[in-house]
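Bumping my old thread because nobody answered last time. Still need a sequence for this structure:
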């Protein structure tokens, strides 16, 4: 697997190899995970949130199960605010997947269950970040991830 340079600061990821597979240590889930292109993005974003946005590890969850009628989906990253309320949902895509309407709709679909104030979609190269205004049923596009509150 080629490790694509991302549009994120350097992350101190712990990589290991077993046979032909590369693994990455997830500081949130506290286990080794197979390093897929999407996991490469997810782990960089987790480190970015911790190291550059000063979000405590205990306020970040990864691969959270969401129950949607008869389906079970997984939210890539969910950040909780200091009151432990869901604050930011991030949907991760592999670097070669474009951030388009379909990817954004997926994140919005997940947010229908969570109702967080901030939603982001990232392939590690491009980050689309939105603040949701539930009263007016609109959104504002942001230039950066929100500050942790």
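Sorry it took so long. Here it is:
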């Amino acid at each position: 697997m080629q490790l694509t340079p991302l549009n994120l600061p350097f992350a101190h990821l712990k990589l290991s190899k077993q046979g032909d597979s590369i693994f990455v240590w997830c500081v949130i889930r506290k286990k080794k995970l197979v390093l897929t292109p999407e996991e490469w993005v997810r782990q960089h974003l987790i480190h970015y949130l911790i190291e550059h946005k000063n979000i405590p590890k205990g306020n970040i969850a990864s691969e959270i199960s969401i129950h949607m009628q008869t389906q079970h989906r997984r939210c890539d990253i969910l950040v909780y605010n200091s009151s432990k309320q869901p604050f930011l949902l991030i949907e991760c895509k592999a670097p070669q997947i474009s951030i388009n309407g379909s990817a954004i709709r997926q994140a919005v679909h997940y947010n229908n269950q969570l109702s967080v104030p901030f939603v982001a979609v990232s392939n590690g190269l491009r980050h689309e970040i939105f603040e949701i205004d539930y009263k007016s049923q609109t959104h504002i596009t942001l230039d950066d991830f929100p500050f942790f509150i």
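The two ends are 37 Å apart (CA to CA). Let me know if any region looks off to you.
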